[in-house]
Every structure is written in C-alpha cells, then in structure tokens.
Amino acid sequence: MSSLFTYTLRIADSSLILGQRMSEWCSNGPTLEEDIAMSNISLDMFGQANGFYQYAAQLDGTKSADELAFRRNEREFFNHQLVEQENGNFGTTMVRNFLHDVFNFLFYTELSKSKDETLSALASKSLKEVKYHLRHSSNWLIRLGGGTEESNTKVQDALEELWMYTGELFEMDNLDTELLNNGIAVDNSALKLEWDIMVNKTLVKAKLTRPEEVYMATGGKKGLHTECLGFILSEMQFLQRAYPDAKW
Amino acid sequence: MQSGNTKYIWELLNTVPDPEIPVISVVELGVIREVKFENDCLTISITPTYSGCPAVKTFMDDIKTCLTKNDINNFELKIVYSPAWTTEWMTDATKEKLRKYGIAPPSNIVICPQCKSENTTLISEFGSTACKSFFKCDECLEPFEFFKCI
C-alpha cells in the first residue's frame, strides 16, 4: 500500500461516513426544507467520497471504488471518529457537522494547493460545496444557541459531548509528514489556530461556551474506532456483503 | 459519421437536455469542457456540477445514446474535476431560458422570476436539487427556486 493511497483513502472514508450519517436524516428531518438540505449534504459527501475512492482505486490497481467502500471492515476504515458519532437530536448533528465543516473548509483550502494534481482538483471541487455546508451548520448553531433556553442547553450539551473528538483532526503521523515533505499532504497541525479562531467566533455569536480542555480521543488514522462505526458499516455494507457484486 | 468535425459534435451535444432542467442543454449548462478527436477516437471531457449530483450519471447515459444514435461509436467520456464547474460559464441567453422556466438564474441579486422584484427572502439554502436554493418573493408572494452561484 502506497502512502498516497492510504492518504487518499483516509479523506474518502471521512466523507463517506459523514455522508452515511447525514443520509439517516432523509425522511426524518425536523422540517421538509431541512430534510432536503441534509439529504443534499449527504449527496455532496458521497460524491466527494466517490472522487477520492476512484483515485485511490486507480492508485491501488486491484480494488474498485465500490470494493473500497463496501468490502472493508471497521479496522480498515480511517475516518475521523467525529464523523461516525450518532446523529442524536438535530442540534447534535449540527454541532458535529459544524466542528467538521470548519476543519474541512481549512483542509480543502490547503489541499487545493497540493502538488498532486488529482488531490488538488478534488479539493477545489469539494471546497465549493463545503462552504455551503459550513454556512448551513454555522447558521443553525447561531439560531439554536441563541434560541430558547432548551435549544441552547441541547447544543451546549452536544458541544461538550463531541469536543473530545476534535483533537484528532489536527494529528499528524509519519505518513502525513512524509507526504507533507513531498508537497502533497496538508499540515493538519497548522490548521488548529485558524480552526480555533473560526470556531470561537461562531460560538460567541451562538451564545455558547467553548468546552474546557478535555481528554482527546484518538485512533481514526490507525483504524481504531468508537462502537458507532460497526453499526454504520453493518447497515451500509449489508447488500454488498449478502449479495457480492450486486448491481442496480 | 463526420470524423474530426468537432463543431458537429458540439451541435449534437447541444440537443441533449439537462435531465432536471430540460429547457437547457448540457452544453448550455457548461459541463462539456472539451471535444476532441485523437486517431479517430472522440474524447469528450465532462465536469460534474456538484460531486454528488445524480443527474451526472443520467446525462452521461443520454450523451452515449445521442452519439450512438448518430452512428458515432468510437468515443470516450472522460470526467475532469479541474477547473471546477462554475455558474459563471453560463451565458446570458441560458440565464434568460432559466428565468422563463421559473428558476431565478445565478446572480448576486436574487430576482423573482415571475414579477422581477428584488424584494425576495431565502427560505432554505437547499432546494429540490443540489444546484438550487429555495426563495420566496415578498412582492408577488410566489415561492421560487434560485440557481446558486458556485
């Protein structure tokens, strides 16, 4: 497995799992408009995942994009633990997405400057969509945080609950460093400062309190996950596992 | 088949409608980036509007059908991501077609396609398709879709 393959797979996995989580809202949204919005975001995430999986499949040469998505086990998935967390209430979903959208916005802005032409092209494309997602989740955070006492409490609770999954977004391992030195990868640790500024700004507007520094979960890059991922995969992969190579 | 004649191919592609907005063609939508012949093989480069747009698969199939119906069988459809698709590639004539169809075309000011009022309010960032958001007109009170600037 080449480093570039693994790096591409990691990006694809986070997009796919968040897309799958968002698709769970389809027909369950609090209003029709939000139902449509979340299904649209889900489609964007699947589309982005597909782009990165296609590239990974091309680099690997033995597995197709579909095989990468539907025939790998939990420990072979490298997504951020944040995106696999349960949807909870609507506010929980908006908090989770907001924390990840800010990261995605900064990450894709940098990745669009990558020396790898395909990664750079996919990043520029994804960035356009992520800007919309970020605006959507930020606006909801401000509305819910500044809404009633109950809505404020719910999003504040979600923030406290999910905060421990934000640390790993900025981790760098040997593989990242190797590709960073080649001008291909993004320096995630360098995104932290800007992420803090952007998150803090919206939290102030949303009348929410930034959580205290807590223990940060880690492991996504190594294939270590919370118990949520297994349940997601068992639903998402069911058809391809039960009927391998089934086509529409 | 008129091999090597890219102008003819562009004309053919201009007859393939967008599956979700049938008043404009895939050429007018701006997704056809390049048409070229190499050793008698036709290559058409296509860029998706949104990464997850389900219409892309449909219009790729429609393009294949259109080409084979016109006896063009030696071709390849290539997906390109860079430069990323932008609504800036839409001509004024295309925007007018959208407006007449009832969709406010991409622009900095969202104008009601019915009564042309600029007094409009956003209802939702996301409409019936990835490329549109949902507005209402505060003058004539009609709801309408706005083709997002991207």
> What is the residue-averaged pLDDT of chain A?
96
CATH topology of the largest domain in chain B: GMP Synthetase, Chain A, domain 3
Give helix % range of chain A: 55-70%
Can you count the beta strands of chain A?
A: 0
Q: How many distinct folded domains of chain A?
A: 1
CATH superfamily of the largest domain in chain B: Fe-S cluster assembly (FSCA)
CATH class of chain A: Mainly Alpha
| Neighbour order of strands in the largest sheet of chain B | 4-7-6-5
Overall average pLDDT of chain B: 91
User: Which sequence of SSEs, written as H and E, runs from N to C of chain A?
Assistant: HHHHHHHHHHH
* Unreliable residue runs of chain A: none
Topology-level CATH name of chain A? Ferritin
Radius of gyration of chain A: 18 Å
* CATH architectural designation of the largest domain in chain B: 2-Layer Sandwich
Tell me the strand percentage band of chain B: 15-25%
Describe the model:
The radius of gyration of chain A is 18 Å and the shape is globular. Chain A has a single domain, classed as Ferritin (Up-down Bundle). Chain A is 65% helix and 0% strand. The longest helix of chain A has 29 residues, at 32-60. Chain A is mainly alpha-helical and 248 residues long. Chain A has helices at 3-23, 32-60, 65-70, 81-84, 90-111, 117-145, 149-162, 174-181, 192-205, 228-236, 238-242. Chain B has 150 residues and is of the alpha/beta class. Chain B has two domains: 6-85, GMP Synthetase, Chain A, domain 3 (2-Layer Sandwich); 88-147, no CATH class. Helices cover 25% and strands 24% of the residues of chain B. Chain B has four helices and seven strands; from the N terminus they run ααββαβαββββ. Chain B has helices at residues 6-13, 26-29, 55-69, 92-101; strands spanning 32-38, 41-46, 75-79, 103-104, 120-124, 132-137, 143-147. In chain B, the strands form two sheets. In chain B, strands 4-7-6-5 form a four-stranded mixed beta sheet. In chain B, a hairpin with a 5-residue loop joins strand 6 and strand 7 (143-147). The longest helix of chain B has 15 residues, at 55-69. Chain B starts with 5 loop residues before the first helix and ends with a strand. The model of chain B has no long low-confidence stretch (mean pLDDT 91). Chain A binds chain B through residues 19, 33-34, 36-37, 40-48, 50-51, 117-118, 120-122, 124-126, 128-129, 132, 135-136, 139, and chain B through 48, 50-54, 80-85, 123-130, 134, 148, 150.
